[in-house]
Structure formats: C-alpha cells, structure tokens
Amino acid sequence: MTRTLALLVALTAVLFSGVLHGMWTERWHTSATRRDAAERLGRLPQRIGEWEGQDQEMDRREFEVAMIDGYVMRRYVRPRDGSAVSLLLVSGRHGPVSVHSPEVCYAGAGYAQVAAAVREDVPAGHGSQAQQFLKAKFLKENATETDALWIRWGWSAGGDWQAPKNPRLTFARSGVLYKLYVIGGSQAASDQEQSDPGLEFLGVLLPELRGALIQ
C-alpha cells in the first residue's frame, strides 16, 4: 500500500509539472499579445514602393514544426527591371522563433553557406537609426548552373531589428518575437553583389514594417 501510494504521488507530481510547463510555454493556448502580433503581420502592404508582392503559402507541416503563430510569405518584384526578392516574416514565442536560422534551414534544401554570416547595418529611413541584420551567401550546384542566394535575417521584439549572437538569450523575456528573412538571388554564381537587390528592398521595407508592427 505504501509503495502504491508513493507511485501515485510521484505520478501526480510528474503530471502536475507537465501541466505547469505547458501553461508556462503556452502549449495549449495563445496569449492575447501573441494573437495581436500575428494579426499585425497582415498589415504589411502588398505594394512597397516600386515593389509588388504576391502571397505564397507555407507548407502546413513546416508551419507546425516551426511552432509559429503566424506568417507572411511573399515574392516581391520590381516591374521596371525585373528585380525580385522573397520575404518571410513570422511571429510567435521567443523560443521557437529565435532558432532555425538559414544555416540550418537551407542546408536541408541542398544549399551550402559560402562564408560565415556577417552583420550589416541597414538604413531605416525617416530619421530612424540603422537596423542590424545578419547576411550570408548560399550556393547550390545544379547540373547546368549554380544558384546563388543572399539571405538577410534578424529579430525584433516589436522595436528595432537586431542580429545578436544569441537571440534566444537576448529575447528571453520577450512575450512575442518577430523574425524576418529577405532573400535575393541570381541564377549565376559569377554575378556580382549588384545582382542581390535585398539591401535596396530592405531600405523601403523597414519603414513599412515599423508602421505595421508597432502602431
């Protein structure tokens, strides 16, 4: 009887701790703050400066694995010269959103990172201070050509965009976290940096993001 009681007490403790952990990590519900953050993603305009965006759908399995609350995934094209970039903006709990950087994600798609990521200051316009992002180049060898991508990414807790060494620690006290990817590319590895329109696009994107996510 004593042993049975001890086992019941231990089982209750395990279940109780699991419930507490689920409540702490919001496993079974989404806070009002996070719901509001996910809804704000929809405020990002379809047209940004000269760039016209077209929505794309994230694979449902990828969405669930990423453990995000919401996302905007678009391809933006500038009609006058055909320049194109891809954008992925997500929101959710700081833990899941602070991980899964391109070094991991794109390696699984056959891309190899050329060199270590570097930090890049991007002008934000309207007198705002420059925002910081990480940038890296990725290559994928195909039968007839080499696909080159320049990827920039960073995080925001609702204010400035940052590229810390340890985003999980930096944003540990944030109730909600945003992550942004801007991807520019070329179908020829010999193309120079001017084939990467990501920096120019970010310059007009950042003021729009501030208006959509903060106001």
How large a portion of the residues is in β-strands, by DSSP E? Answer: 25-35%
Helix content: 25-40%
Biggest sheet architecture: 9 strands, antiparallel
Number of helices: 7
**Secondary-structure element series:** HHEEHEEHHEEEEHEH
Q: State the distance separating the first and last CA atoms.
A: 62 Å
Counted beta strands:
9
The backbone outline, from C-alpha atoms, is globular
Low-pLDDT runs? 3-29, 189-194
* CATH topology tier name of the largest domain: Protein Transport Mog1p, Chain A
Query: What structural class do helix, strand and pairing data support?
Result: alpha+beta
Q: Over the alpha carbons, how many angstroms does the gyration radius reach? A: 21 Å
Brief rundown of the structure:
This protein has helices at residues 2-24, 32-40, 60-66, 94-97, 102-105, 167-170, 198-213, and strands spanning 47-48, 51-55, 70-78, 83-92, 112-113, 118-122, 131-141, 146-156, 177-186.
